[in-house]
Amino acid sequence: MGSANPTPIWEPYLLVANNRLIVYYSDERDKANHDQKIVHQTSTNGVNWGPVVEDVAMADRALRPGMPVVTRMANGQYLMVFEMVGQSNTPNNYKISATPESWNAASGGTTIDYGGSPFVFTLPNGRLAYNSYGSGDIRINTGNGAGAWTPVRTTMPRGYSRMLQYVRGTGRVLILSVEGFWVDARNSVYYGDVELGNSAGAYYKLIYRRSGKAMDVYQANLQDGAQPVQWADNGRCPSRPVERHRRPRPAVATRPGVLTHP
Questions:
Q1: What is the pLDDT of residue 216?
Q2: Measured between alpha carbons, how far is 139 from 130 in angstroms, rounded to an integer?
Q3: Residues of the chain above pLDDT 70, percent
Q4: Does residue 257 sit within a domain?
Q5: How do residues 41-57 score in pLDDT, each as one tens digit?
Q6: Could you tell me which InterPro entries the record lists for this protein (predicted)?
Q7: Apex CA 80: angle with CA 22 and CA 61, to 5°?
């Protein structure tokens, strides 16, 4: 029986940008300076890889930034989310860069929420959809990373690894959630989907009979008790539809990529 590798690399995330394949990952090989840091390498052929470049490497050696995920935003800039193990409640932070290969490694970024295991991607309408182990909610950002990350409730359980994937055929967002490696039982993978404003099919406007104007929600606010407003009808759907959810169903991973119901 072998022993654990004391200097592993793990938690990879792949991104294609500027005709290059970029792999971001957590790196524990620099123990003299960092217990763990986030780095990346690039390749033009998937075989030969460039040098290791630091993306998040904190001055406090004990901090362990990890689990990086990167998305290209609607404005052409890139946003990276990552966890910061070693700080209270495990903050989930983000950083923004004009290029996916330069991240100001000494910066710890800005906190979105807590709990670790963050994931983010960009919706077709330009909004950012985000979740983490801290909650079963999905958070929506409408400002290319600036401003509020508004929680939207889902029926899905939180997960140590919870991926979000836009499905072109339906316009809905698939959620895959797994409990965690520490569970003293067979892990289950749960899946469900959620409506975040891009579903195929009909959309409807509400027109006030007296004014002839369209109903909207002020500043596209997704929170409970948001202020309704009315505007002149410009021929487009003025607001996002109400979020709709399907009940999650458990599945068991029998081999990578294959889910079977118990």
A1: 79
A2: 5
A3: 84
A4: no
A5: 999 999 999 999 999 99
A6: Glyco_hydro_beta-prop_sf, Ricin_B-like_lectins
A7: 95
Tokens 């090989």 -> residue: 29
Contacts (Cβ under 8 Å, ≥6 apart) of 176: 162, 163, 165, 189, 190, 191
Q: What is the DSSP string of 160-204?
A: SEEEEEE-TTTS-EEEEEE--TT-SS---EEEEEE--S--SS---
| Number of neighbouring beta carbons within 10 Å of residue 26 | 23
Predicted pLDDT at 92: 98
DSSP 245: B
Instruction: Indicate the residue type of 80.
Output: M
State how far the Cα of 129 lies from the Cα of 150, in Å rounded to an integer.
10
Q: Give the sheet arrangement for strand 110-114, strand by strand.
A: 64-72, 78-85, 91-97, 110-114
- Same domain membership, residue 62 and residue 90: yes
Mean pLDDT within 236-250: 43
Neighbours of 197 (CB within 10 A): 22
pLDDT of residue 108: 98
Residue 182 burial (CB count, 10 A): 7
Q: How many domains does the chain have?
A: 2
Strands (E) across the chain are located at 9-17, 20-27, 37-43, 53-56, 64-72, 78-85, 91-97, 110-114, 119-122, 128-131, 138-141, 150-152, 161-166, 173-178, 189-194, 214-217, 228-231, 249-255, 258-260
Q: 81 and 28 share a domain?
A: yes
Q: How far apart are CA 187 and CA 252, in angstroms?
A: 7
> Tokens for 240?
């996002």
Give the rounded distance of the alpha carbon of 4 from its chain centre. Answer: 29
